[in-house]
Amino acid sequence: MSKMTTQPLRICLLPVFLLVTWGCSPSQPESMASDDLSSVAGTYATVSESEWSQELRLNANGTAELINGTWAPGDWENRLSYQYSGRWTLQGNEVRLQLLESRTSPQHVPRTETLRYEAELNLAEIGREEAAPGLINLNPRDDSPLWPGTMWRDDALRALGWP
User: Fold this and answer.
1) Which domain holds residue 96?
2) How many other C-beta atoms lie within 10 A of the C-beta of residue 31?
3) Residue 70 predicted with pLDDT over 50
4) Given CA atoms 25, 147, 142, 80 in this order, what sign does their dihedral have?
5) Is residue 125 part of a domain?
6) Are 85 and 100 in contact (CB under 8 A)?
7) Residue 35 — very low, low, confident or very high, per pLDDT cuts 50/70/90?
8) Sign of CA dihedral 16, 20, 22, 27
């Protein structure tokens, strides 16, 4: 019978100890913990010169509202509005949006979307040199109420003097 040693066990437990001590995602910023929705909560909007708009409200209590608007050229006052409500969670920098209800487009719910949050998302896409907090749709689909495109936090855009 061979003599057993505990050294291999100690070596195997070291990675487990490190994961428990540092968390499962050592690269995850402390401010982005899964229960800290307030760091990402806010209203995000697309920037468009076309006849459409998209606004996503991520509330600190985990509820969400998506509002899409479309209109004929020059007829913004008579725009059509499509509204969706649901919940959202945060894991690292990944926002999981669950659209659960819609009175205006019930055929598009329930649906789950995944976005990436960036605290400093470059505004070059809209011709600016600054950066602002923003969301990027990771899996844009044609049949989704969450349209492709970048969304920036509305209050940050306004602070930069965006209309």
Assistant:
1) 32-159
2) 10
3) yes
4) positive
5) yes
6) yes
7) low
8) positive
Residues 6+ apart with CB under 8 A from 60: 37, 38, 41
Counting the structural domains of the chain, the total is 1
Question: Which CATH number fits the domain that encloses residue 147?
Answer: 2.40.128
Q: How many helices (H) and strands (E) does the chain have?
A: 2, 8
Q: Can you give the pTM of this predicted structure?
A: 0.75
The token pair that represents 114 in the structure block: 């995944």
Name the residue with tokens 């990027």.
136
Q: Is the pLDDT of residue 127 over 90?
A: no
Structural tokens at position 93:
């920098």
Contacts with 25 (C-beta within 8 Å, 6 or more apart), sequence order:
92
Determine, yes or no, domain membership for 51.
yes
The residues, ordered by sequence, that sit 6+ positions from 105 with a Cβ below 8 Å of its Cβ are 82, 84, 145
Q: Is 54 inside any structural domain?
A: yes
Residues 6+ apart with CB under 8 A from 88: 37, 58, 62, 63, 64, 95, 96, 97, 98
Length in residues, the chain: 163
